[in-house]
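Usage example:
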Amino acid sequence: MSATSTDVLIVGGGGAGCSTALHLAKRGARCILLERGQIGGQASGVNYGGVRQQGRHPAELPLARRARDIWAKLPELIGTDCEFEVTGHLKLARNQAEEADLIAYLDVAKANGLPLIMIGGNVIHQQYPWLGPDVVAGSFAPDDGAANPRLLSPALARAARDAGADIRQFTPVSHLAHDGTQFVVTSGEHEFRARYLVNTAGYWGGAVARAFGEQVPVSPLSPNMLVTEPLPYFIAPNLGVVGGDVYLRQIRRGNVIFGGGRGQSDPDVPSSRPSPEASAAVMAKALQLVPQLAGAQVIRSWTGIDGEMPDQIPVIGLSRTTPDLFHAFGFSGHGFQLGPAVGAIMSELVLDRHTDVPLEPFRIDRFAADQSFNQQGQRHDASHHA
Amino acid sequence: MSILIIGAGPAGTRAAEVLVSAGLRPIVIDEAPENGGRIYQRQPAGFRRDPRTLYGFEAAKARAIHDVFDQLRPSIDFRPRTLAWNLRQGVIDTICDGKASAVPFAQTILCTGAMDRAVPLPGWTLPGVFTLGGSQIALKAQGCAIGAKVAFLGTGPLLYLVAYQYARAGAQVTAVLDTTPFAVKAAQAFGLMRGGATFAKGLYYIAWLRARGIRIAEGVTPMAIEGSDRVELVSWRDARGTNHEAAVDAVAIGFGLKPEAQLADLAGVPFDFDPVQHNWVPRKDPSGRTSVGGVFLAGDGGGIRGADLAEAAGARAAWAVLAARGLAADARAVARLDATLAAGASFRAALERAFPFPAKLAADMADETILCRCEVITAGELRAAANEALAMLSPSEVNRAKALTRVGMGRCQGRVCGAAAAEVLAAALSCPAEQVGRLRGQPPVKPIPILPAEAA
Amino acid sequence: MRLQRLAETDRAAVSFVLDGTPVAALEGDSLLTAILAHDGYLRVSEFGDGLRAGFCLMGACQDCWVNVEGGGRVRACTTPLTGGMRVSRRIVQP
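Running the assembly step on the lines above writes:
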């Protein structure tokens, strides 16, 4: 068994892991990133591409703000903007209850310095004449936008490598342990050793945590996605709805990307398939938002595997069992925008033992020890742990 | 539980025939308004040409396939104008006239046929450039030539057949340009002779064209198709290295066929790279059974073997379905079919070697050539991504290349550009084409419209 | 380019509207035949390389999509022409 030693091992090569490698390398720490498949091959590469602060759980807003600052500087940081465009995010209400929800969030936004503009029924249809009649109001976040998810992780990884990180694709991890002195991570016939271990393994972050005695109720989440043929560009903002059951945006090339509902997955393979039922359902919802899309041709559907926590916010922070083990996984379908900042704060945790971003809400042990949650967030017997 | 046949061409027709004779009532789905597939595509109502004119030497076979299907109609559930756009466990998702329907099945025989293989060259997206197969359909199903002065460019038996059909129909065939040198074809003569009548027909077409003074050049290197907004000129380098050009208004191009195997892919059927066909082919046993329970393959959609063997394969797969259902087989019929399929194999191999896919031509296409015509991505853009300074993070396989460059991301989902893209990528990575893999299928296999809720 | 009608020319005449102009065609034409027998293109490429007129004629290449009033987007090569169809080749802003 051959062995390689380094300062920091990172398990999982999505946006969180690659940005961690980048920030560590820029600060001179030696690190090795281990990715089972290709960089950004799971949730980070197949998601909707929203770069969005609006609508987040208040606990996420400081992290999202930090991320937004990094998104603005991506070209300097990694040499490409990953097609990030500040399109604004328009969150729509389709009935009065949803409108009340939008209004209630204005306070959350204000408290966190997130600029939002509430748009009432008459104005919104004047401003966006293509919106369907069911839309009664909207909340516009001028600072939000979208980017190309397929580009971010590879670009982060490339920049990390330029900065001195060792990025290993096709390197599945079969065993993780701490031998009293350091972490020992095994892949095939090779051992990787380091003082620090960062767990950015997405849905499989739960398995990594479990290897160190931390049970976490993370479930597989497969957002069902579709894309149309190129159409003349007319939908400028990134569209969302209260409840998040449909999201839709149009890229400059003309394709309309939209999604909602769940596909199917088998994380043990790993494999995933979009769902025709979910696709049919989200088509109807897309038409409710933009009726003129009726008849537009869908050319592809897809999904991937993300990790979902029962309370819909990630696990980020120190391990509760093992010193020098740090977690960042379970982004519950909305980690893309956060990725660039996750790496920054993980590098601060590792190197400075401190970060300014409040992480208390993301503690790994916030789930009661004698209870666990199933996929619907219902408590049930711990023997059915995810 | 249902048996679903996807595709009502020669394979699907013979499969239905066997199933009906066993007392079953298969569902037969086809995108076209009528049965017949492509080689025996039926002309629309009101067209009057006789089968001999339409199908030439294959007239009797075409008529037989049409007659058999017409007789089967009362005994099958025929669903024309229906697209099967997804295949998942035990269910095929279809859409017809804007209405979606999930069709459960116990067994399905995928008889989805083939399309031409393309090698992009400069100007190939101009109006007036069509595939060989498409050019044949224009004539057969619509009574039209693709242009007033047509060049035929590519390789394979279809090149000569369609040129012959055009000339016979009164079109002006300006040139027939075969990328395969004569010597390569001649070297396969022994194997080709096993094809008997098929080989003789091929020689006949070539001789007929030559006898009428139609220009035929072999061993050519295509250079470009030129024109402003339409085809005006085609240029090529001959086997001796001399450049030529011809004023034309249409070019029919094609370099053999490749299976339309997207549903097999979605079913989870593993694929293997067939070095003789130079195609990725879904894996099946000689009866057409795959490793995926309930999924069977027949005809060109499971690997290119031609129309005659498609008929045999369709019938054979139906017998395999009956066996899977525990029904008794007609052992003699099965043995005959197995013998036919086995006997045809060596001729097919010789044919593929006689008209090889010009992989090097594809790999060497100029940087400015549009490689992916849906998304308008050039060969140079794909090469640039492959040659990224940090080789490890560059795409080592076509799906990652697609994600980074958009090659294969358009409406046709890589049907047209996939083969050539693999050659370009492999050459840039200095590895064999099969090492860069194949584009992974994603539903829908063809575009489907955004539908309102009540269509489900 | 134009498709050249070599055979089956004595079919019933059918008329349709192409980009606002009445065009004569024949019963049994596909939309692709009807358009390309009259004029030299089916669509304008979204990405700047000019005009397109389809490629495979068998519903595989997806390069022949046009707009039919009241019928949405259709593939010209696999769509039969019906009299009075109003077809547009410019992708109309939804």
